[in-house]
Request: fold
Amino acid sequence: MVRKKIVAGNWKMNKSYDEGIALVEQLVDELDMDKVGDTHIIIAPPSVLLQPVTELLMFSPGIAVAAQNCHHEESGAFTGEISAAMIKSVDADAVIVGHSERREYFKEDDALISKKMKAALDKELMVIYCCGESFEERKTANHIAVVEKQLRTALSDFSAKDADNIIVAYEPVWAIGTGEVATVAQAGEMHTHIRTVLSSIFGDAAQNMSILYGGSVKPDNAAELFAHPDIDGGLIGGASLKSADFMSIIYAMPK
Ligand code: PEP
Reply:
Protein backbone atom coordinates (compact mmCIF):
# COMPACT_ATOMS: atom_id res chain seq x y z
CA MET A 1 0.00 0.00 0.00
CA VAL A 2 1.25 3.50 -0.77
CA ARG A 3 0.48 6.63 1.17
CA LYS A 4 -2.51 8.39 -0.41
CA LYS A 5 -2.62 12.08 -1.30
CA ILE A 6 -5.99 13.38 -0.16
CA VAL A 7 -7.94 16.63 -0.35
CA ALA A 8 -11.09 16.54 1.77
CA GLY A 9 -13.79 19.21 1.93
CA ASN A 10 -15.68 19.69 5.19
CA TRP A 11 -18.81 21.68 4.47
CA LYS A 12 -19.73 21.91 8.17
CA MET A 13 -23.35 23.15 8.65
CA ASN A 14 -23.52 24.87 5.26
CA LYS A 15 -25.53 24.40 2.05
CA SER A 16 -29.21 23.66 1.62
CA TYR A 17 -30.17 20.46 -0.16
CA ASP A 18 -30.36 22.20 -3.56
CA GLU A 19 -27.16 24.18 -3.04
CA GLY A 20 -25.27 21.03 -2.02
CA ILE A 21 -26.45 19.12 -5.07
CA ALA A 22 -25.51 22.05 -7.31
CA LEU A 23 -22.00 22.22 -5.84
CA VAL A 24 -21.37 18.50 -6.36
CA GLU A 25 -22.77 18.64 -9.90
CA GLN A 26 -20.46 21.54 -10.69
CA LEU A 27 -17.45 19.65 -9.33
CA VAL A 28 -18.29 16.54 -11.34
CA ASP A 29 -18.75 18.62 -14.51
CA GLU A 30 -15.71 20.82 -14.13
CA LEU A 31 -13.01 18.75 -12.43
CA ASP A 32 -10.17 18.09 -14.84
CA MET A 33 -9.15 14.53 -13.95
CA ASP A 34 -5.75 14.96 -15.64
CA LYS A 35 -5.00 17.73 -13.17
CA VAL A 36 -6.41 15.70 -10.27
CA GLY A 37 -3.96 12.88 -11.03
CA ASP A 38 -3.82 10.33 -8.23
CA THR A 39 -5.13 12.71 -5.55
CA HIS A 40 -8.11 11.26 -3.68
CA ILE A 41 -10.98 13.66 -3.07
CA ILE A 42 -13.39 13.38 -0.16
CA ILE A 43 -16.52 15.48 0.34
CA ALA A 44 -18.12 15.74 3.78
CA PRO A 45 -21.56 17.31 3.42
CA PRO A 46 -24.15 17.69 6.20
CA SER A 47 -25.89 14.38 6.94
CA VAL A 48 -29.12 15.16 5.04
CA LEU A 49 -26.99 15.32 1.89
CA LEU A 50 -25.05 12.08 2.41
CA GLN A 51 -27.41 9.88 0.43
CA PRO A 52 -27.98 12.16 -2.60
CA VAL A 53 -24.31 13.10 -2.82
CA THR A 54 -23.28 9.45 -2.66
CA GLU A 55 -25.74 8.69 -5.44
CA LEU A 56 -24.51 11.61 -7.58
CA LEU A 57 -20.94 10.38 -7.20
CA MET A 58 -21.71 6.75 -8.01
CA PHE A 59 -19.78 7.03 -11.30
CA SER A 60 -16.98 9.23 -9.90
CA PRO A 61 -14.76 6.66 -8.19
CA GLY A 62 -12.08 9.24 -7.34
CA ILE A 63 -14.46 11.16 -5.06
CA ALA A 64 -15.46 9.62 -1.73
CA VAL A 65 -18.13 10.82 0.68
CA ALA A 66 -17.70 11.30 4.42
CA ALA A 67 -20.05 12.13 7.27
CA GLN A 68 -18.91 14.87 9.65
CA ASN A 69 -19.57 12.89 12.85
CA CYS A 70 -21.18 9.72 14.13
CA HIS A 71 -22.46 8.31 17.41
CA HIS A 72 -20.55 5.40 18.91
CA GLU A 73 -23.64 3.22 19.49
CA GLU A 74 -25.25 1.37 16.62
CA SER A 75 -28.82 2.49 17.41
CA GLY A 76 -30.97 3.57 20.31
CA ALA A 77 -32.41 6.50 22.22
CA PHE A 78 -29.89 9.16 21.16
CA THR A 79 -32.08 11.90 19.74
CA GLY A 80 -30.44 13.90 17.00
CA GLU A 81 -27.55 11.51 16.41
CA ILE A 82 -26.62 9.25 13.49
CA SER A 83 -24.71 5.98 13.75
CA ALA A 84 -21.87 4.56 11.70
CA ALA A 85 -24.28 1.84 10.55
CA MET A 86 -26.61 4.52 9.13
CA ILE A 87 -23.73 6.24 7.35
CA LYS A 88 -22.70 2.91 5.86
CA SER A 89 -26.29 2.18 4.84
CA VAL A 90 -26.28 5.11 2.39
CA ASP A 91 -22.97 3.89 0.91
CA ALA A 92 -20.87 6.71 2.29
CA ASP A 93 -17.18 5.84 2.62
CA ALA A 94 -15.87 7.65 5.66
CA VAL A 95 -16.55 9.71 8.75
CA ILE A 96 -14.73 12.65 10.32
CA VAL A 97 -14.26 12.30 14.08
CA GLY A 98 -12.81 14.65 16.65
CA HIS A 99 -13.16 17.88 14.71
CA SER A 100 -12.23 20.78 17.00
CA GLU A 101 -15.75 22.21 16.70
CA ARG A 102 -17.13 18.94 18.09
CA ARG A 103 -14.49 19.00 20.83
CA GLU A 104 -15.24 22.61 21.73
CA TYR A 105 -19.03 22.95 21.32
CA PHE A 106 -20.08 19.37 22.10
CA LYS A 107 -17.42 18.63 24.70
CA GLU A 108 -16.10 15.53 22.96
CA ASP A 109 -12.85 14.13 24.31
CA ASP A 110 -10.41 11.57 22.95
CA ALA A 111 -11.88 8.70 24.96
CA LEU A 112 -15.26 9.29 23.29
CA ILE A 113 -13.66 9.94 19.91
CA SER A 114 -11.90 6.59 20.19
CA LYS A 115 -15.29 4.86 20.66
CA LYS A 116 -16.63 6.64 17.58
CA MET A 117 -13.61 5.45 15.62
CA LYS A 118 -14.19 1.88 16.72
CA ALA A 119 -17.85 2.09 15.66
CA ALA A 120 -16.84 3.48 12.26
CA LEU A 121 -14.04 0.98 11.62
CA ASP A 122 -16.34 -1.89 12.64
CA LYS A 123 -18.67 -0.78 9.84
CA GLU A 124 -15.75 -0.62 7.39
CA LEU A 125 -15.80 3.13 7.11
CA MET A 126 -12.59 5.11 6.73
CA VAL A 127 -11.98 7.50 9.61
CA ILE A 128 -10.57 11.01 9.41
CA TYR A 129 -9.32 11.65 12.93
CA CYS A 130 -8.75 15.34 13.73
CA CYS A 131 -6.34 16.61 16.33
CA GLY A 132 -4.72 19.97 17.06
CA GLU A 133 -3.75 22.45 19.75
CA SER A 134 -5.37 25.71 20.85
CA PHE A 135 -3.68 29.09 20.50
CA GLU A 136 -2.90 29.10 24.22
CA GLU A 137 -1.26 25.68 23.99
CA ARG A 138 0.94 26.80 21.12
CA LYS A 139 1.81 30.07 22.82
CA THR A 140 3.01 28.18 25.86
CA ALA A 141 4.95 25.71 23.68
CA ASN A 142 2.76 22.77 24.71
CA HIS A 143 1.49 22.04 21.21
CA ILE A 144 3.61 18.97 20.55
CA ALA A 145 2.73 17.36 23.90
CA VAL A 146 -0.98 18.18 23.53
CA VAL A 147 -1.28 16.63 20.07
CA GLU A 148 0.76 13.59 21.11
CA LYS A 149 -1.59 13.01 24.06
CA GLN A 150 -4.65 13.32 21.80
CA LEU A 151 -3.20 10.77 19.39
CA ARG A 152 -2.16 8.28 22.06
CA THR A 153 -5.52 8.49 23.88
CA ALA A 154 -7.62 8.12 20.75
CA LEU A 155 -5.53 5.67 18.72
CA SER A 156 -3.65 3.35 21.06
CA ASP A 157 -6.37 0.66 21.07
CA PHE A 158 -6.21 0.19 17.31
CA SER A 159 -4.07 -2.23 15.30
CA ALA A 160 -1.73 -1.83 12.35
CA LYS A 161 -4.53 -3.29 10.21
CA ASP A 162 -6.91 -0.55 11.40
CA ALA A 163 -4.24 2.01 10.49
CA ASP A 164 -4.95 1.34 6.79
CA ASN A 165 -8.35 2.93 7.33
CA ILE A 166 -7.33 5.85 9.51
CA ILE A 167 -6.43 9.26 8.10
CA VAL A 168 -5.10 11.85 10.55
CA ALA A 169 -5.90 15.54 10.10
CA TYR A 170 -3.74 18.00 12.02
CA GLU A 171 -5.83 21.11 12.51
CA PRO A 172 -4.43 23.77 14.84
CA VAL A 173 -7.56 25.30 16.39
CA TRP A 174 -6.19 28.83 16.00
CA ALA A 175 -6.01 28.35 12.22
CA ILE A 176 -9.52 26.97 11.64
CA GLY A 177 -11.81 29.47 9.98
CA THR A 178 -9.61 32.35 11.10
CA GLY A 179 -7.69 33.06 7.91
CA GLU A 180 -4.52 32.45 9.89
CA VAL A 181 -2.61 29.54 8.40
CA ALA A 182 0.20 27.59 10.04
CA THR A 183 3.53 28.16 8.34
CA VAL A 184 5.01 25.23 6.44
CA ALA A 185 7.63 24.99 9.20
CA GLN A 186 4.97 24.83 11.95
CA ALA A 187 2.77 22.32 10.11
CA GLY A 188 5.76 20.30 8.89
CA GLU A 189 7.26 20.02 12.39
CA MET A 190 3.93 18.75 13.73
CA HIS A 191 3.31 16.32 10.87
CA THR A 192 6.76 14.81 11.28
CA HIS A 193 6.11 14.40 15.00
CA ILE A 194 2.65 12.91 14.35
CA ARG A 195 4.23 10.30 12.08
CA THR A 196 6.76 9.43 14.80
CA VAL A 197 3.91 8.94 17.29
CA LEU A 198 1.93 6.90 14.74
CA SER A 199 5.01 4.73 14.14
CA SER A 200 5.29 4.05 17.85
CA ILE A 201 1.63 2.95 17.91
CA PHE A 202 1.30 1.17 14.56
CA GLY A 203 4.88 0.31 13.55
CA ASP A 204 5.67 0.31 9.83
CA ALA A 205 1.99 0.79 8.91
CA ALA A 206 2.39 4.45 9.93
CA GLN A 207 4.48 5.10 6.81
CA ASN A 208 1.37 4.50 4.70
CA MET A 209 -0.95 6.69 6.76
CA SER A 210 -2.00 10.01 5.26
CA ILE A 211 -1.62 13.04 7.49
CA LEU A 212 -3.63 16.04 6.29
CA TYR A 213 -3.21 19.66 7.31
CA GLY A 214 -6.33 21.73 8.02
CA GLY A 215 -6.70 25.38 8.94
CA SER A 216 -7.43 28.15 6.44
CA VAL A 217 -6.03 26.29 3.43
CA LYS A 218 -6.77 28.43 0.37
CA PRO A 219 -5.82 28.31 -3.31
CA ASP A 220 -2.89 30.65 -2.65
CA ASN A 221 -1.25 28.72 0.20
CA ALA A 222 -2.08 25.08 -0.64
CA ALA A 223 0.85 24.31 -2.97
CA GLU A 224 3.45 25.44 -0.45
CA LEU A 225 1.93 23.30 2.32
CA PHE A 226 1.39 20.24 0.13
CA ALA A 227 5.02 20.32 -1.04
CA HIS A 228 6.20 19.23 2.43
CA PRO A 229 7.01 15.50 2.40
CA ASP A 230 4.99 14.78 5.56
CA ILE A 231 1.92 16.81 4.52
CA ASP A 232 -0.15 14.36 2.48
CA GLY A 233 -3.03 16.67 1.72
CA GLY A 234 -5.57 18.93 3.33
CA LEU A 235 -8.85 19.07 5.19
CA ILE A 236 -10.54 22.15 3.80
CA GLY A 237 -13.42 24.01 5.43
CA GLY A 238 -14.45 27.40 4.01
CA ALA A 239 -12.66 27.02 0.68
CA SER A 240 -14.47 23.73 -0.06
CA LEU A 241 -17.77 25.60 -0.36
CA LYS A 242 -16.79 27.21 -3.67
CA SER A 243 -16.05 24.78 -6.47
CA ALA A 244 -13.40 26.97 -8.11
CA ASP A 245 -11.44 27.33 -4.86
CA PHE A 246 -11.78 23.66 -3.96
CA MET A 247 -10.63 22.61 -7.43
CA SER A 248 -7.56 24.88 -7.31
CA ILE A 249 -6.61 23.37 -3.96
CA ILE A 250 -6.98 19.86 -5.40
CA TYR A 251 -4.79 20.83 -8.38
CA ALA A 252 -2.17 22.24 -6.00
CA MET A 253 -1.22 18.74 -4.87
CA PRO A 254 2.22 17.86 -6.33
CA LYS A 255 2.02 15.22 -9.08
C1 PEP B 1 -12.06 22.66 9.00
O1 PEP B 1 -13.20 22.94 9.31
O2 PEP B 1 -11.69 21.50 9.13
C2 PEP B 1 -11.19 23.72 8.46
C3 PEP B 1 -9.93 23.46 8.30
O3 PEP B 1 -11.80 24.93 8.20
P1 PEP B 1 -11.13 26.17 7.38
O4 PEP B 1 -10.46 25.60 6.16
O5 PEP B 1 -12.30 27.04 7.05
O6 PEP B 1 -10.15 26.81 8.30
About this structure: The pocket of phosphoenolpyruvate is lined by residues 10, 12, 171, 176-177, 214-217, 235-239 (CB under 6 Å).
